## 1
Amino acid sequence: MAHDENEAHRAKVEAIAAEVRERVRRGEPIHIQKGGVHHFVPLPGDRRFAGRAVDISGLDQVLDIDVGAARCVVEPGVTFAALVAATLPHGLVPAVVPELEGITAGGAVAGCSVESMSFRHGGFHDTCAEYEVVTGDGRVLVCSPELEPELFHMIHGSYGTLAILTRITLRLVPAKRHVHLRYRRFDDAPSFDAALRSVVAEGQEDFVDGIIHGEGPGDFVLCLGRFVDAAPYTSSYRWLDIDYQSTRRRDEDYLTTPDYLFRYDTECHWLTRTLPPLEWKPVRLLLGKHVLGSENLIRWSKRLERLLALRRRPDVVVDVFIPARNLRTFLRWYAADFRFYPLWVVPYRVPVPYPWVAREHAARFRDVLLVDCAVYGKRNTEPGRDFSQLLEDKTYELDGIKTLISRNHHSRERFWQIYDEPAYRAAKARLDPEGVFADLYDKFHPER
């Protein structure tokens, strides 16, 4: 790390720590304002950002890239678009790159990001070697698997309720300029599941994920990718053409590496489907730069928050993690009771359960492979059926776990059957002894 960059970083961190100490002196609760857009799903009456904000938007720099060690040091506000742009010229990229350009390194740690290299590398947190944090009483603390391992692993999945991340050291992997994609289609869930398990076990691919377009022949698509030095052509899904639709009609494709890593960004997966004209080429031609892309779409959803509040329930936008042994059962239930497509499917290797998962619940996984099944935009207006609740209940029944970025329905008792309350309270006592950050359960259950 260059001396000037190191000194500038220290000055920023000390200013944040001093502000936290002043807030503690005043007895004020705190939430973290990271700048840009939040990737939490907008909810009516949202209280997740209660309390006065500590602005950490200035923590947005790549501090060091060690090419020989394949290691990178970043501030938490660095977006993955900026991080890939900085590392790819060196023939390297982060080992896990979340699929939306505006997701930040800090958000990926706190919010449990995975992607199509997760079958090999785990989640983004699993590729990190060290965190620097400002605690809830204004101390600066460094955590790693060797130094403060309990705190290091508890920061993952804490959603800003334990401390303020100020620096992250992460692992990089070799990368090439292009990605060659092959699409394998299957007629049913069992054959898709068998192929997914086989590909993961063989470990020959650089990227593995899937898109399930429906319940009929050819609707189950396994997407396999490998880095390549050169490509006979490259497709672009940044404007007029739509990536997820291409997986239904193409057998293979070539993309530049950045276009592959952020292939879901233009549609924010397929949220543009909720307003069909956004998928029409004339509309995209005229308005694309103003409305397409995750940052634009999330900003528009924020502007429309008052209109969203008029709905009885917001759309279902959530990731659930199902033990691979139960994937077929989940997909059978999903086809019968949920029926919203596309469904994004990401295999995710977790060789050792995270310590924030309650031991009894982690024991129920009985599999080192979880499968992230991601739902983006199912309307939830049917009287008498709350599909968000149904999905949460089925995930628990099948021994899985869900992200907390959207609506949550757990009772307090059920929540602490899934999350390890003693481990969380121990970390809270050390990292936030004054209780200036929100409690994990209370932050994500405003309806209770």
Note: The two ends are 46 Å apart (CA to CA).
## 2
Amino acid sequence: MITRIAESIIEERLFREKVVLLYGARQTGKTTLVKELIKRHGGIYFNADEPDIRLWFANRTSSELRSLVGTAKLVVIDEAQRVENIGLTLKLMVDNFPDVQVVATGSSSFELADRLKEPLTGRKYEMILPPFSLEEMETARGPLEVDRMLSKSVIYGMYPEPALFGVAEACERLLELAGSYLYKDVLLLGQIRHPDALEKLLRALALQVGNEVSYTELAGLVGIDKNTVETYIRILEQAFILFRLPPFSRNLRTELKKMRKIYFWDTGIRNAVINNFSPLETRPDAGALWENFLIAERIKYLRNHRSANSSYFWRTHQQQEIDYIEERERGLLSVEIKSQSGRGRIPATFSRAYPGAELHVISTADWRELVYADL
């Protein structure tokens, strides 16, 4: 059993007369987590993937809702984004049942958040549950085991089932996840008019991990217009499949200001999209894959510890670059990521422009310097 960091944070927020909202991609462990809460506190579980459950909770009065939950003190509505007018339903429950703790999960933040923003103003706590983090794995299994499994983790990612299965099962499960299952909520919403283009876009992004991306170039590759590319990427972000890093720019006229990098929340999903699970030591994309993996782990760490630090990359028009920049209250953290141990350096241009920045060059041997860097 891998204990999730989010679990203790949620425990601290229970029974304070607010809804707890737990977001995350499908198969990251949301259902397992909320069922653990039910075991601990008692309660009742509703799965809104079931059509009748959706009907039960849609457009109900407070009296009807009370009859549904009965005397339960903890009520979980899983995949709540599928319930019509779920925001108003949850508002009624919070306002009328102060003795009941409601926990709602959603695998797509865009629809659930849009529906909840106005009805639940001041009435909610929000959490995001990413795939397993290295920190969680290290707490459960120790640093030696994590180091031993590091190459497998980079190739097969950190989704709970692939992370805990053997290689053959992990590969099969990832290919299933990377199909329409992972983003079926996106397709159900009807905002994706070209499902084939969505798959082409994901593949194009997977092949460009570690590079700045141009929406115009992606549009040409995929065969849709630039605005549609931007819309699809935003939706894939809100479905917890991708995340973006903007460029860091403060002092120099030569710094990039408009490009962005796009990474996958999980490198196993990225590899499934391109159907390549080759060992790390044989891959021409090993550097980009390692960069994606470590940056995703750092951002998981920030989210798990409720940090407001902002993340960037840095590059100049003269191709000087730093893979990861983090803006902290205590000053800038700048990290150049190498897939192999050896020499690397932070560009002198950056050091002169930002003399107070904390500078690191890290590889597989010292990944903890980035992932667990002081907040």
Note: The domain at 5-128 is CATH 3.40.50.300 (Rossmann fold).
